[in-house]
Amino acid sequence: MGDSARFTVARLTDGNYQVWKFKMKMLLIREGTWTYVDGPTPPTHSEAWTAGDEKARSTISLSVDDSQVVHICNCTSAKAMWEELRKVHERANLSNKLYLLRKLYQLKLQADEEMQGYIRRTLELVERLRGIGQETTDFQVAALLLSGLPESYETLVTALDARPDDDLTLEYVKGKLVDEFMKKQGSTSSPSASGTALRAKGDDSKQV
């Protein structure tokens, strides 16, 4: 059984290009056809080169949603397919950058949202911006994560703000946010437990 039959990626849609691009590259590397996308195209195509390019084209074509087929159905090489999809999904125009930047700066941790989900949403937008040439430093990402927190995290934000900037790496901030979220999740169950214990103590004192 071939690699492409055992390893698949989620099909490309309008909203998952950055993740799809990375996973598709890994899949093509694994099956030995990434060179047909990233390498030079020979002036004359040998039978072996044509077979390899067709394999890469088929892998890409079978890993996109039906809505994306229109962008690549007339491409005659894997390299052309890859470039066409890049142009479609990494539009570097001003309106697209503004749209993504606005979404990034307006991100907030929702009341019913897991902290890891909030972090993932932020990083996905950052990667989409980087894909169209809008660089965002890890320090800026860390600051944006903190700015999107509700007031209940103010103590943590104040404590982190007191630390030197060099300490505030993205990994450090993400770890602190997850730790604080888990602490808060644990504390939500403690009042009921404490109340039960107090009631039990009260009942015992009455019996005495």
UniProtKB/TrEMBL annotation:
Domain of life from the UniProt record: Eukaryota
Region feature (Disordered): 184-208
Annotated Low complexity bias: 186-197
Name of the protein described by the UniProt record: Retrovirus-related Pol polyprotein from transposon TNT 1-94
Organism per entry: Ornithodoros erraticus (European soft tick)
